[in-house]
Amino acid sequence: LQVPHTASQPLASNESRRFTNKHSKKALKASLTLGILLGMFFVAWLPFFVTNVAQAVCGCVPAGFFDVLTWLGYCNSTMNPIIYPLFMRDFKRAMGKFLPCCRHSAEPRPSAISLSMRNSNSGPRAATSLKNVL
Q1: CB 118 within 8 A of CB 110
Q2: Which runs of E-coded beta strand occur in the chain?
Q3: Position 128 in a domain
Q4: Structural domains counted in the chain
């Protein structure tokens, strides 16, 4: 016994494949971002921690070298706010909402009327128009 082939099966297969492909692209981008962030963290802070342990054991690390490694770690912490917006669209959007310097001119700002309608518990009424309100 064979099951007859319907037209909806190839469509479902294509949609499933497209969803999987889109999901794997997002996962790859997330992995890449995480890899870059962790890689930069280890490059910046691992020498500091190794030197810190060496200083505790033998006391043979010059103070100037220790200060340079400390500032290298501080520079990594300074780079995080730059790295996140470069690789994460959601982070960029969230920062754009809170920082006026990062807003795009194309993004519409809510008007006072829409804010008052949003903050009041009454939604738009069928008989009330904007002309009647003003």
Answers
A1: yes
A2: none
A3: no
A4: 1
